[in-house]
Amino acid sequence: MDLVGVASPEPGPAAAWGPSKCPWATPQNTISCSLADVMSEQLAKELQLEEEAAAFPEVVVAEGPFITGENTDTSSDLMLAQMLQMEFDREYDAQLRREEKKFNGDSKVSISFENYRKVHPYEDSDSSEDEVDWQDTRDDPYIPAKPVPTPKKGFIGKGKDITTKHDEVVCGRKNTARMENFAPGFQVGDGIGMDLKLSNHVFNALKQHAYSEERRSARLHEKKEHSTAEKAVDPKTRLLMYKMVNSGMLETITGCISTGKESVVFHAYGGSTEDEKEDSKVIPTECAIKVFKTTLNEFKNRDKYIKDDFRFKDRFSKLNPRKIIRMWAEKEMHNLTRMQRAGIPCPTVVLLKKHILVMSFIGHDQVPAPKLKEVKLSSEEMKEAYYQTLHLMQQLYNECTLVHADLSEYNMLWHAGKVWLIDVSQSVEPTHPHGLEFLFRDCRNVSQFFQKGGVKEALGERELFNAVSGLNISADNEADFLAEIEALEKMNEDHVQKNGRKAASFLKDDGGPPVLYDE
Ligand code: ADP
Ligand code: MN
């Protein structure tokens, strides 16, 4: 049996292609978006719509996955048909693999069905333009009535009946047969079944068209994948993001890099600011866009962080939930700015727009720097990371007057040989009614992570707490230690109740570390 199918010139990487591997240019990060996310976004959307409708006149946003500022056409039926065809081809191939397995069973000699695979030629190759050799004249098994091959000498026959390889009829038939090499989704009509003779000119034009259609289709499919991620934000948010691109501040929003409970983070290439004002900033080449989720649920879980933060306390009571969500973004911005000033490695704030915070991207070429949780460090690097973290925590407490309050290996990135702090929307001042408890929790996470990671020098959680806060809590077990922390917090609150926050000099005149009252 002749099993030679539509063999691609090279066996190509198609054989290795499995369901987990995306054949298109894959976004470097997993896109996660659950139904629950989408549903909660709908709730959020309803909340936001009224208010923002007034502020933003309707603009038609192309339902494009990338936000590039260019108009993207995704409405073509042909494109959709081709995407479906690709989907079908893939399913067909999966079925083929199953058949193949069944056919071969445990037999020592196996038969490969590889050549019957349907996957798009695009997926079969690394798809650099010149890899697809449309003029390949090697035997084409699908030629219905095989034209007489032209021998090496370039002609057959004799005298008047001589036929050269340029013969119109032969060549035309070959061209018609070769059309079968076009992508499966490409409409070539019934020509293949007939004795149709395509001139070289027509064939080449058609070939060119087929190829560009194919690439278009692949590009489109790639975009479709990104758009799934973009659905993680509501239309109003998308509109705000679109405006950032439209204004030129961002060049392209490439896709989603993280979908969390409370935020969705996108990667974008920075553009430039038009206005030549002195304070206009240089936009970083790569940006991260953190979109705070505008759901009531999450805000409820977290209000303890903000409601008691005296910086926001006055405003809290007057605000509606949507505005409180914006305060999260604002809080992250302020906290990052403080950290930046202290020289702590962290993202630089680029822009705050409602619940969207644009900052510099920690990473390179769309690949975010790994979290300490994910990165495999040598023991030397691990030790180095530990000392850096200790120093960061002290700087944060003493110079920024902040407690991270969600510090762990998940919110520390390893980039350019340094530990970078991110995710500081919930960070509070140490004098926050629960500030010291938050600090203790941070210390526990950090201590456990580095101790488990084999750093012998890593302080235990209680020692670390004292080393960061400068407090001298001597309790030698956790319960007592925590009791002391809570007593301190209470004393502090009582002082505030008595004397008022403004009267209290929590900060030294030089802006140094806060002093907790222990009178
Ligand atoms: P969440 O509240 O969802 O945890 P984070 O601020 O921690 O929000 O962001 C989620 C993830 O997005 C991070 O773990 C990190 O991988 C990525 N990320 C966030 N900000 C940046 C940034 N500035 N540069 C690179 N990656 C970032
Ligand atoms: Mn985080």
According to DSSP, the number of beta strands is 11
Low-confidence stretches: 1-33, 50-66, 70-80, 120-148, 224-228, 503-519
Q: What portion of the residues fall into strands of 2 or more residues?
A: 5-15%
Small molecules (ligands, ions, cofactors) in the structure: adenosine-5'-diphosphate, manganese (II) ion
What is the approximate shape? Answer: elongated
Count every helix, treating DSSP H or I runs of 4 or more residues as helices: 13
Order of helices and strands: HHHEEHHHEEEHHHEEEEHEEHHH
- Neighbour order of strands in the largest sheet: 3-4-5-7-6
Terminal Cα separation, in Å? 94 Å
Query: Taking all residues together, what is the mean pLDDT?
Result: 72
Class inferred from helices and paired strands: alpha+beta
User: Could you estimate the helical fraction of the residues in percent?
Assistant: 40-55%
Nearest-angstrom radius of gyration? 32 Å
Sheet bearing the most strands, described?
Answer: 5 strands, antiparallel
GO molecular function: ATP binding; metal ion binding; protein serine/threonine kinase activity
Subunit structure: Interacts with CASP10. Interacts with IRF3; RIOK3 probably mediates the interaction of TBK1 with IRF3. Associated with 40S pre-ribosomal particles.
Cofactor: Mg(2+)
Family: Belongs to the protein kinase superfamily. RIO-type Ser/Thr kinase family.
Can you characterise this structure?
- The structure is a single chain.
- The chain is α+β, with helices and mostly antiparallel strands and 519 residues long.
- The chain contains 13 helices and eleven strands.
- Strands 3-4-5-7-6 form a five-stranded antiparallel sheet, with helices on both faces. The protein has a two-stranded antiparallel sheet with strand order 1-2. The chain has a two-stranded antiparallel sheet with strand order 8-9.
- Strand 8 and strand 9 form a beta hairpin.
- The longest helix is centred in the middle third of the chain and has 31 residues.
- The termini are far apart.
- The N terminus and C terminus are likely disordered.
- It binds adenosine-5'-diphosphate and manganese (II) ion.
- Belongs to the protein kinase superfamily. RIO-type Ser/Thr kinase family.
